[in-house]
């Protein structure tokens, strides 16, 4: 069986799955209510509310809840079920705040990413949109960084979701490896595995919620961030082949939440990106898009028979075969001689926003438990 992203499945099948699930859950809720009303001895069967909530989460995760008003119906049902059965939160103990340690050494020879002293005007941004830069502390006024809605508090992340929720997570240190996989995991269990809650697992493999739109599933989080006006700039007009996101908003939001030490290999994205650090610190390494061959992406590695572990999927042709945060490999001379002199690096503090231009290679390493927001436009 081959797994595919919901965007590759025809709309009619995703809509059918969504409507069928909504019908089944509504019928189950109604039946449970009837049993409660008709029961005279007080021995009402325990409702299977956990599976109802899980099924509704699957509508968002697998099908993206297509159809007018369907996503809102899913949210209303989830919170209605949680409220009606007063299941509450298990309130697991929060893990103690880790000691803030020094960041690991940056890759060799990296040039610092410019940190701007003030935000540029829209016209100035359009002129400088071909190179990375940082707007320090740009997001410090987001609700996500304030006490009541602080994303660094596991208790808040749990309360926004409510009990019984599941999320799709990556399992394994590196998606280029054969032992990497994906699975659904309870939200509370995931927060334990990354160190935000006490507890954990005997499974030593790291878990990562990567490139996932948490706002569609936990929609109350959307009010905790602010979208910069820059995402509406005309930065792509000079690139004939560029196609911005085609959704109504004109931008795509994704989140990245994982444990300290989690890395993402250097890769390119098809959009411009404002990458905002909300929780913890993250090291970002960047290289210009003109150095594609010198970055040894998997497709070129395979075609030239250079020694490298072959990828499990051809979708890795936008990903390097090099471990950026390790010493430069001796058998990749073009990377050493051509890329390293032009590579850039920075450490994002909570509140910092990094602009990543179209096509720039970038690799990341979490220096703490880290939660980031990417805005593709």
TrEMBL record:
Q: Which domain of life is it from?
A: Eukaryota
Matching Pfam families, A to Z? Cupin_8
What the entry lists under PROSITE patterns is as follows: JMJC
Residues of the JmjC domain: 216-377
Name of the protein this chain belongs to: Clavaminate synthase-like protein
